[in-house]
């Protein structure tokens, strides 16, 4: 059976209170896509009715059961055109009379499956209940299809659930707003799960809300394979499902490398209670007070010469200190070198010299090294300061360059410091959304990530014609998507990412310090766009003197809004 097929995304501006008009326009767009050869056609969230409803009473005349008149209408169209169609609509459950914001997959035989939006945005509680059907994957003649609705995809767990269940394609229908699209989270979910993502977003203005358009098809490598910036329209493209079924991220078999035994916190809700109370419970590991701090990342290519590497680390640390930095993060294996690493003990000369550099310049330093302990080798990151070694973390998710020499670590690195609660990850760990999430659930304010990652971690945007309110950017951006910005925002942490730069060997750098709120503009971040060097940004882990969190790194909105009763399959 062929694994190639043509798919289409439909972009559309529905009109509230004009359901028949919306249905007729959607039918016309679907027919246009089908006649262009599309076998899977995706239309926007709530495309049959519009989105910004005041309450249940206002939307009540437009809700329907599934199956119902609208799904029967599109099933007839699917039979006629020989295709599958995804429709977004308000659903009523006849047994409970509850309303849901639903996505429906319809084929020539009728309704294949329904997804009720599980993670509500601010608008849904005005009229609908959170979805109660979990996150299914539907096996169809056009591939293994999953459905997600808008806010669902903010949460790493939803796309991971369907990825692990074998989805070739995530059909994500949305009413996305408040940023330039294709949105970075859309790209991140495709990349981290190595699957296609067909994004159907609405555009236009409804009840003062400006929607962002940017409907697109995203490949398993994050490339935008087809896109509509603004206006009604369709975009078709041929895809190959074998690319998704390879399950490779940055060339690595990420699903095989997962460590579910380390993810046991994912089905928990550590932020269900006031975190300032929760983390002081029984007096065990209360969150540190926090402060405003200057954090830097350094980007360079370590060699096999430990002394030369430490000389380079000191020079870069000195430059960062001159720029006001108090904490500097260096790349993975910055001390010992990347190839055939000469492993060192933590109580040896190399780490002692790293502590001496920290002491001379009044800094804290995080750096990677190959560690030897009792005859076993680890890919390790150490955090040191003038007081000595603060802590170490041994890489838990090994990549191809680690497997011929290193053993995996078996515990997370979380340390309380004057900068706040710090978590450590190393390079390939950050490819796994579960890793950052566990650190967030443990209350980390700041994640340090020494890395040696090859491949594309960023992509550009040419700019959009959609008008947005100031200060939401609309112009061209060379770093519109950055994997580590997404990791910071989805976990509401500051993230300091220091990558190797060695273009000849595939290490492209793009080191940076990223802020905890993806939708805050101007962004609180600094990126090294090219070349070796350092860059510094301010982080803020403080809280006003109140019993409740006033800082997003302490409040963690996107962690608080998780619905972890859905997430149990992630730890199996």
From TrEMBL:
Tell me where in this chain the CN hydrolase domain is found. 5-241, 293-541
Q: Which GO terms describe its molecular function?
A: hydrolase activity, acting on carbon-nitrogen (but not peptide) bonds, in linear amides
Q: Which species does the entry assign this protein to? A: Ancylobacter dichloromethanicus
The UniProt entry, under Gene3D superfamilies, shows: Carbon-nitrogen hydrolase
* Record protein name field: Amidohydrolase
Organism superkingdom: Bacteria
Keyword set, alphabetical order: Hydrolase
Upper lineage: Bacteria, Pseudomonadati, Pseudomonadota, Alphaproteobacteria, Hyphomicrobiales
